[in-house]
Amino acid sequence: MEIExxxxxxxxxxGAPNVVSKRLFEKLGGKAVSSLRVSDxxxxxxxxNVANLSEIKLxxxxxxxxxxxxNLDDSNVVFRCFQIDGLLGSNVLSTSxxxxxxxxxxxxxxxxxxxxxxxxxxxxKLELVGKQKSPYVWIxxxxxxxxxERLLVDTGAADLYDLSKAHxxxxxxxxxxQERGTSVGGSSIGLFGAGAKEEHARLLLxxxxxxxxxxxxxxxxxxNDDNSRIGATILKHGLxxxxxxxxxxxxEPFKEETLMxxxxxxxxxxxxxxxxxxxxxxxxxxxxKLSYGDVxxxxxxxxxxxxxIIARREEFKAADSVRYLIQxxxxxxxxxxxxxxxxxxxxxx
Length: 349
Prior knowledge:
Layout (H helix, E strand, L loop, with lengths): L1 E2 L2 E2 L2 E3 L6 E2 L1 H6 L6 E6 L5 E14 L2 E10 L6 H5 L4 E3 L8 E5 L4 E5 L12 E3 L1 E3 L4 E9 L3 E8 L7 E4 H7 L6 E8 L3 E2 L2 E2 L3 E13 L2 E11 L5 E2 L7 E6 L4 E6 L4 E2 L3 E2 L2 E5 L4 E6 L13 E5 L6 H6 L1 H6 L2 E7 L7 E6 L1 E2 L6
Parallel strand pairs: 3-8, 4-7, 14-21, 15-20, 20-24
Antiparallel strand pairs: 1-2, 1-6, 4-8, 5-6, 6-7, 9-10, 9-22, 11-23, 12-13, 13-14, 13-19, 15-21, 16-19, 17-18, 19-20, 22-23, 25-31, 26-27, 27-28, 28-29, 29-30
Protein name: Peptidase A2 domain-containing protein
Organism: Aureicoccus marinus
């Protein structure tokens, strides 16, 4: 993205407002026009300054007088590990059509939808919420019973599906989701750091249906956010198009149905910015060995940098088993443990 003739690195995050780094804000003159109280993906809030970007350029597209929040701390995990200058949010895209083509590493931004040859068979209504124009779409959740849920389309989130705890409280009364464990802790990392320590559930959803396309055996966790969300994992499975102008959502899948990997390790990780930590312990047999806040000192016998692991997240996620050196949060002796993936699905419906 180009600002005042210089190119900067931004994450295209449809679930966020525009945000610039503190460093970039100061470089551009450091003049705030107002301030706002803002909540992140973990429902944690803080006061942030608002700057005005007189002009930004994305390829051949030019946008003027764009408001942007100013990041409080450029050393946080998101800005530091991805080496970014900011987040480009939905409020700048609200007059455009944006298509995400992950296999070809392309983002297409246009105001001429017909050039994209979109198929109405893959279409759903897109709802734009608030001044930020946050994009929402409805899905079906299918187990023994069927329900519907409105999700935030959030390309800044990593996983396919994160379920709001408030929404799960309603769904748990119906035989839709299969609970595969509960734990007290946290694993999500937002703009203001790791989420608060709370009770969460790990779930198996037999079928998630989006724009008519079925995803089978979806493993997910609850989140502290008020909103459930669909994250960037969806981009691995099809072309995603958000038509902000006509309020339409398109998903063109690569397969007739998508079978998700139902295997998962018995823990979820988080970070304090310096180390990886045990965030949630799901398997009962691990709860007398591992606890929230235990520090991971080594992975596969090697020291690591947090940003290296975050950048290689998919590599470690794909491994069948991983060996960790653990420093217990309660001050006990360090120990090694190997954690292997286990299937969470009983049957494929």
